[in-house]
Amino acid sequence: MPKQYKIYPPDTIHTTVQLPASKSMSNRALILNALSISHYTIRNLSDCEDTRVIVDAFNSDSNVFDVKGAGTAMRFLTAFLAGMEGEWVIKGSKRMHERPIHPLVETLTALGAEIDYLEKEGFPPLRIKGRKLKGGEVYLSGNISSQFISALLMIAPIMEHGLIMHIEKNIVSKPYIDLTMAMMAQCGVTAKWADNDIIVKPQQYQAIELEAETDWSAASYWYELVALMPGAEVRLPGLRKKSLQGDANVANLFNDLGVATEYQEEGVVIHHSKRKAKKFFHDFVNEPDLAQTFAATCCFKGIPFLFSGIQSLKIKETDRVQALINELKKLGFVLKESDNGMLEWEGERCFPEKDPAINTYDDHRMAMSFTPGAIPFSTLIINDPQVVTKSYPRFWDDLKDAGFIIKE
Question: CB 112: neighbour CB atoms within 10 A?
Answer without folding.
Answer: 17
